[in-house]
Amino acid sequence: MSNATVTIHPGRTHRSVFDLKTRLNYRIGFLTICFLTIAVISTIDIWFAVANSSILAVEQNPICKALIEMDQSRFSFFILGKTLGTVIVLSTLTQLHRYRYRHATFVTVAITLFQLCLLTYMTLSDPLFYDLPNFSLLFSETSDSVWELE
Predict the structure, then answer these.
(1) In a domain, 41, yes or no
(2) Domain that includes residue 40, residue range
(3) Taking burial as the number of CB atoms within 10 A of a residue's CB, which of 44, 80, 86, 118 is the most buried?
């Protein structure tokens, strides 16, 4: 047992440094795509809300409704609030990954999927797009039928 050499067992697979770098690059790329998706959809959400003339009737978020009511003419509080909220979310996700929180990837993917669902809802709820029925009526208290054709 005085032999100081280490033998590597032929049946075991060992990861090289290159494999770890490749995995790290894929993870960083995946997280970058998730972060960009969250930021872009948030920007589209702001644009849809500001471009809509009846923003107060369309907006579903109660905090955003309160911000719109504070400044109905310019929407400055609304835009600032939405932007600040997005920055806080992305900063929190960055810190979760920086401190290697165990569920950070799950949380990032969940928020990204939620944003994609939000984009789908925003797109399908606008009757000017794709000549579809107005899906926002599903969530409103009006008695109009969503599938009624005139």
Answers:
(1) yes
(2) 36-123
(3) 86
